[in-house]
Write a structure and sequence with these properties.
single chain, alpha/beta, Rossmann fold, 9-stranded mixed beta sheet, 35 strands
Length: 666
């Protein structure tokens, strides 16, 4: 029996198959100080429901442990062992300035301090030729220095280890006696670019003890963890390479959104995941998840594959305030799970959730099917305090409802910018896409954002507030491998690439077999690609590998689509070979929603006052659980359900499709 778990800043979501075969969901308040507490409580609840122990549950978990550790800089006391002379590569980085016109701009402190960065005498050329052999006799002294430094983990990253890994192997064997986790660069990322590779391996070492302890605390023997690339890996692999999980939570949502859009026959989508603390957006053309090896998390470069997700600090718990210049600001600070928005009964600061409640956009219902009551009086008091600040700043009297409308406009502007980053700013016409809205707060803002970007259609899937957990549950086991090769795409050495791919595939097949997948097509799939560029360029594009005859033409087309031009006379260089291998997980049974007698307009179940402007209007309120396939809704309306609430304005049409998706057309 499979269970999907997604830990958010405000709620922890659970999805599982009930006794009748239908999927069930529930949410528990997150426990930020120790996320495993909420998870353990939820798993015990599921075990009681289905009469199974936790050990009998197969759990797929989207986690924020790695992300939060990086953001808060509370990882392990890690050391770095590198080629002598390159101890400061983490501090030097690249010449790019984080803020071009800020004369006082600075970089954050390296996650491994200078005192814990150690150089060893060795030198290998970029070709793999050994110029200076490693002094194996000095490794005993290095081991003792690391022991005295009381390090909790070690990152090993030599300058050209991707071309000659033997020196790293010798160092790793010597340091095994320390009894701490080791992160070895030729195992994690055997690619060139020493800064990005060193940063990635250092992050892995920084997170290893924390992630290992966290996964052990869950006490779940059948546990998989979502990766940032949109697939899952075993808990053991996640503990060894936690750098692959730092965008674990948002990745599950993208997987779930693609699955929902595929059922609705909408392959070109923009995902919009608005939770309690942040909003994550991603563009998926043709139903394909876009990945990147150039991500930056908490101002640190990460070169392993991650989904191309853009995140902004805008969520239901984002705090509204008036800044020193008298302008209204919303986020990125969040009330989180504790104390939470004022409406949750403990907080006092105004948030986006409080604004939506005051504007009537929850349809008079509480959260979680009414189990979680909202305190409208407390929300009003918080917004009234903000209104007084706004009045003092502007010299014009502002009401609590006007302040709430302002909060919604400001947070929408921030999320609109995020949607533009992944679409218009990258050359995509947003009018050709469908917005897939999910997350607990997404439905309250999705239609307004779609209208601002001229997106013609919005899909709100079933159980939108738990789609990230559902996506984790449906994800395949994915292994990503890469190797720098540096080959001319038209040269006579291109046959070496076929040999490289065969070696990588053999290793991947063996790894998936250890994960429990038989070595056959229906259980394993392997997709080779290359990172290519015009000779002399600094960055690459990933191209699907089909044959050496078609590679150059495919690269020219990709370059034209990405940058607006192609240099067809220029030589194409293959920088790295990459292989994505999948262990195919059994698909979830697709639910079919009972169909109504005919496609007809359904009367709302009740009505409630809603503020679209400073004057309230009475709108219909629908309970989504009572809507059948084919139902058409009267707009404007509010659709309430256990995990989310959706606001549909008058200028939109709304219906329920055969799979239960709420389809909104502008």
């Amino acid at each position: 029996m499979r269970v999907g778990v997604d830990t958010g800043g405000t709620f922890t979501d659970f999805v599982y198959a009930a006794r009748d075969g239908r999927l069930s969901i529930f949410k528990l308040a997150s426990t930020p100080a120790d996320p495993s507490r909420a998870i353990a409580e939820g798993l015990r609840r599921i075990g009681r429901e289905v009469n199974l122990s936790v050990g009998e549950l197969e759990i797929v978990h989207g986690t924020t442990v790695g992300t939060n550790a990086l953001l808060q800089r509370r990882g392990a006391r890690a050391a770095l062992v590198t080629t002598a002379g390159f101890e400061d590569v983490l501090a030097i980085g690249r010449q790019a300035r984080p803020a071009l016109y800020d004369l006082d701009a600075g970089r954050p402190e390296a996650i491994i301090p200078r005192a814990l960065r150690f150089g060893v005498l060795e030198r290998v050329a970029a070709t793999g030729e050994v110029l200076e052999a490693l002094d194996a006799g000095a490794l005993a002294g290095l081991t003792e220095r690391l022991r005295r430094a009381r390090v909790e983990s070690v990152a090993i990253c030599l300058l050209f280890s991707f071309a000659h890994p033997e020196h790293e192997r010798l160092i790793a064997r010597a340091l095994e006696s320390l009894g701490v986790p080791l992160s070895v660069s030729h195992e994690i990322l055997p690619e060139y670019r020493e800064f990005e590779r060193t940063s990635t391996v250092a992050i892995n070492a920084y997170l290893q003890p924390l992630m290992g302890a966290y996964l052990k605390k869950l006490r779940a023997p059948r546990l998989r963890v979502m990766q940032s690339s949109g697939g899952s890996i075993s808990a053991g692999a996640a503990a060894r390479e936690p750098v692959r999980t730092i965008l674990s939570g948002p990745a599950g949502g993208v997987v779930g959104a693609i699955d929902a859009a595929r059922a609705a026959r909408s392959p070109d989508i923009i995902t919009f995941d608005m939770g309690g603390t942040s909003t994550d957006v991603a563009l998926c053309a043709g139903g394909v998840m876009r990945t990147t090896n150039e991500a930056t998390v908490a101002a640190l470069p990460v070169a392993v594959p991650v989904l191309d997700i853009h995140t902004v600090g805008a969520g239901g718990g984002s705090i509204a305030r008036v800044d020193a210049g008298g302008s209204l600001r919303v986020g990125p600070e969040s009330a989180g799970a504790s104390p939470g928005p004022a409406a949750y009964g403990r907080g006092t600061l105004p948030t986006v959730t409080d604004a939506n409640l005051l504007l009537g956009r929850f349809g008079g219902a509480g959260l979680l099917g009414g189990d979680f009551e909202l305190d409208e009086r407390r929300a009003h008091d918080a917004l009234a305090g903000l209104a007084r600040e706004m009045s003092a700043a502007s010299g014009r009297a502002t009401t609590a409802h006007e302040a709430a409308l302002g909060v919604v406009r400001v947070v929408n502007a921030g999320m609109e910018r995020a949607l533009r980053v992944v679409s218009v700013e990258r050359g995509f016409d947003s009018r050709a896409f469908t917005l897939v809205s999910f997350g607990g707060a997404g439905g309250l803002h999705a239609v307004a954002l779609a209208a601002s970007l001229h997106i013609p259609r919005v899909i709100v899937p079933l159980r939108p507030g738990a789609l990230s957990a559902l996506g984790a549950l449906a994800s395949d086991v994915v292994l990503d491998a890469s190797r720098t090769v540096m080959l001319d795409a038209s040269g006579d050495r291109l046959g070496e690439l076929d040999i490289t791919f065969r070696q990588m595939e053999r290793a991947a097949r063996a790894a998936l077999k250890r994960e429990g997948f038989r070595d056959e097509r229906r259980e394993q799939r392997h997709a080779p690609s290359v990172a290519a560029r015009y000779k002399g360029q600094s960055f690459e594009l990933e191209i699907e590998w089909k044959s050496r005859r078609t590679l150059a033409a495919a690269f020219h087309r990709a370059h034209l689509a990405r940058y607006g031009y192609a240099q067809t006379e220029s030589a194409v260089e293959i920088v790295s070979a990459r292989l994505r291998s999948r262990g195919i997980v059994g698909r979830l049974k697709r639910e079919r929603v009972e169909r109504s007698a005919g496609d007809s307009i359904v009367a709302p179940h009740k009505s409630a006052p809603v503020y679209f402007t400073v004057k309230p209007a009475r709108v219909g309120v629908y309970e989504r659980e009572r809507l059948r396939a084919g139902a058409r809704l009267k707009t404007p309306c509010i659709v309430t359900e256990y995990s989310s609430t959706t606001l549909v304005p008058a200028r939109a049409r709304a219906r329920v499709d055969a799979d239960g998706n709420l389809i909104i057309e502008l």
